[in-house]
Amino acid sequence: MKKIILCAYIALVAVVACTPKASPTSTDAVIPEAASVSSDQASIDAGHIIFTTKCTKCHGAKDKAVASKSYEALRPILASMSKKAKLSKEEVQQVSAYVYANAKK
Ligand code: HEC
């Protein structure tokens, strides 16, 4: 009887240990599609602050790179940069709003 309980316990531990955890951080946040980017001025302003603070740790503010590319072209870049800058989901939404407002149309 003890063996059965022990086996059941081991099986349970294995299942719990192997279950993927819900992502605790938002470093894998998805860059919103053009159609769903926030266009309200408060988000754009907040995004500008993030862009000039958190995004300049490794390089200058990439204003020129943003202005010379379409939002669609910038999305994959933003996705990897948001991870590098460890932005929260909300910050990702805001920086996306700023980038969208300033990207090449
Ligand atoms: C951990 C360092 C790091 C952080 C933080 C970071 N970047 Fe970058 N970024 C790089 C590197 C490295 C490159 C490539 C070399 C370069 O252009 O300086 C780059 C390049 C870029 C480019 C140019 C890409 C191209 O193809 O022209 C853009 C635009 C950009 N980053 C935007 C951002 C934005 C927006 C953020 C904030 C969300 C950010 N970066 C945060 C490291 C970083």
Structural notes for this entry:
By secondary structure, this protein is mostly helical. It has one domain (29-102). It is built from 5 helices and no strands. The longest helix is centred in the N-terminal third of the chain and has 17 residues, at 2-18. It starts with a helix and ends with a helix. 26% of the residues are buried. Heme C is lined by residues 51, 54-55, 57-59, 62, 65-66, 77-78, 81-82, 84-85, 87, 95.
Layout: helices, strands, pairs:
Layout: H1 2-18, H2 41-53, H3 63-67, H4 71-84, H5 89-102
Helix pairs in contact: 2-5, 4-5
Bound molecules: heme C.
Notable traits:
single chain, 60% helix, mainly alpha, binds heme C, 105 residues
| Rg value | 21 Å
Total separate domains? 1
Q: Determine the mean pLDDT.
A: 85
Q: Could you describe the largest sheet, including whether it forms a barrel?
A: none
Estimated helix fraction: 55-70%
The proportion of strand residues reads under 5%
Which molecules are bound in this entry? heme C
Number of helices: 5
Q: What would the principal axes of the Cα set say about the shape? A: elongated
Summarize the structure.
The protein has 105 residues and is mostly helical.
